[in-house]
Design a protein that fits this description.
This protein has 356 residues and is α/β, with parallel strands linked by helices. It has 16 helices and eleven strands. Helix content is 42%, strand content 13%. Strands 8-7-6-9-10-11 form a six-stranded parallel beta sheet, sandwiched between helices. The protein has a three-stranded parallel beta sheet with strand order 3-4-5, sandwiched between helices. The chain has a two-stranded parallel sheet with strand order 1-2. It folds into two domains: 10-149 and 337-354, Glycogen Phosphorylase B (Rossmann fold); 158-334, 3-Layer(aba) Sandwich (Rossmann fold), CATH 3.40.50.
Amino acid sequence: MALSPQHEVEVIGPAKSGNIWFPMQNMGISIRSYPWKRYPFFISTIRKMTKDIDADVLIACKLRPTSYGIALIKKWTSGIPVIVDIDDWELGFLYHSGFWGKVGRFLNFSNPNGLPYTWLMERFTGFANSTVVSNRFLQKKFSGPLVYHCRDTSILDPDKFDSNSIKARLGLKGKRVVMFLGTPRAHKGMEELFMAMEKIIDPDIRLVLIGADPSIQSHVDRMKINQDKVVIFPKIPFKDLPEHLSAADILVIPQRDTTDTQGQIPAKLFDAMSMAKPVITTPLSDIEEVLGGHGYLIDPSNPDQLAKTIEYIFANPEEARLKGLNARKRCQELYDIKVLKKELNLQIEKLTTAHS
């Protein structure tokens, strides 16, 4: 989206079902997906993708074989320069399962994004023509300019939405909404979030999950949380994100301190800041620095503190409102899409000049 006003942009990539990731559908950008199977069948997918790629610059959006690996193959066979955009520590997602879990994952040679191939990609970062990273952990590990996740604050603008009317349309009229945005995962503190909600007595407070898959209901059942306290919405396209976010009174990002989160900064943090929503989160990675004091920080894996902070925000609405407004100002200044646009265009200009 940052590059499309100035460049012809196409997104391509393998998708197991062949379908485009739901939130990216109908974005107005050309997207091609390639169905795939595990090795050895994935080799044919690699051949097809590298044959179809026609570009002046490649941006690999993940340090994974199915993204950066394919981009490198195309570079080596055609000379097209490659920018690798590292926004997560991919090995961290694979290292969380302990010693024997790592051993099992390392022996998983049939998965194109398995641990051995992802480990190899880290060793190949030097072959990229340029590297961009999204947090200081990754910058220390891989170098390259630091560009945080950015948002179009002209679209994610709270003044464009009537929170109360949207709440009513979503079946949340008169409710105090604590919202979790994104796919629920253990490292995102879902268990602690459910435990915190059980500690809150206020009958008007609702935990709203946006982007959950159907399996989340089994987690709600397992935690034995009061079903009336939880409202689950399926995945939504990006274009509907601002409207749904406008219904939130608080956005919660209760990250656990694990290898999944140490090299990651949640993109939903910037969504909340752009929409001037009070944020409760944990001081992992660069989160505290990004918020700049305009949010509420709690200890990881602390449902008691999370519950008390939710109650505190609802008891102090003016303080929370001002924190949200200041967070939006900070997002407009430092994390707006214009920042990403400027840095990517600078990287592209350097590469196209060098290869002209």
